[in-house]
Each structure stands twice: as structure tokens, then as C-alpha cells.
Amino acid sequence: MKLFMKILVCVFALSVLFSMLPFQSICSQLEKDVLRLHILANSDTDFDQNIKLQVRDKVIEKVSYLYDNARTKEDAKRITNENLAYIEQTANEELKQNNIPYKAKAEVKNIYFNTRYYDNFTMPAGYYDALEITLGKGQGHNWWCVMYPSLCVGTATDSKMKEDLSKNEYNVVTAKDFTFRFKVVEYYEKLRSYLK
Questions:
Q1: pLDDT digit string (tens) for 146-170?
Q2: pTM of the full predicted structure?
Q3: How do the domains of the chain map onto residue ranges?
Q4: How many CA atoms lie within 13 A of 165 on its CB side?
């Protein structure tokens, strides 16, 4: 009886995994088509968390126009790399204006994100290219959004997201009933991360 139960559990697990392949494929494509913004606070004190938000607001205000003509994630990544010094300077000016003793560092990285829920869309877990701004020690809670397509910069709209993502990608990030699927993808990505 134990052997039968083990076989049954394995068959069920495999059927769930196989049914998830198309969904996982779309989530993997999102990793290739999205550029994220990730800001790490110096610490978790209320003061440092508030500074993180002020830096966020200033950076988004000052750099959003840079992405107006980006047509692909690669365009957005190139624009970001070409303007890293400006982005970092903008963050540091905001810190200086608030008499903050630490500095900001901006870089483009490929980093792992858990599934993130954001107002009216969800980004599945995975490794994404991101503009990462580290404030001071970078040991506090982070803030994130999507730089491309512009879901946190400039005039982020649902129609802009529809325009910049494939139909399948758009359906995944705006779906309200994929919580279980997002969890499975997250476990898969954590396993993949562990095996790297």
C-alpha cells in the first residue's frame, strides 16, 4: 500500500509539473523582457526607510524621460547602462540634500526576485535584470518596481504594459487567479537558484 501511495503522489506531482510547463515558459520569457528597479535601504530604521522612498521618488522623477523611446528590454538596459553615473549622481544628490552620511551605488545586475504583488499586476519569481541602487550598507528592506515596460516610471498605464508585453505575458502578470501557479513557479525558481 505504501508503494502505491508513493507512486500516486509521484504521478500527481509530475502531472502538476507538466501542466505548469506552458505557464513556466511564459514566466521565463518575462525574465527576458522585463527590467526591474530595486532599491536597498541602508537599514530598517524608519529614518532609512523614508530616505529610501525619497531617493526612489527623485530617481523616478529625474530618469523617467530616458525610457520614453525604449522599445525593448535591451533598449532599456542599454539606456540604463549609459546613464548609470547620472542615476547614481541623482541618488547621491538626494542623500546629500538630506544630510545623509552614506552614499548610493547604482549598477545593473541579474538578481533573483520572489513573486511580487504590486497593485494590479504580479511579477513571477525568477532572475531578472535590474537597476539596483544600494543606499549605504544596503541592509534594509528593499523597494522594487518595473522600469521596462514602464510600470513605475513616467505615465505607467495598462495600455503601455499591453503594448510592451506579449499577450501571454500580459495575461500572466494581470491575472487574479494564478496564486497557486505563481507559488509553484517560485518553488521551481528557488530550486533552480539552489542548484546554481
A1: 888 876 644 444 555 666 666 766 6
A2: 0.74
A3: 35-195
A4: 31
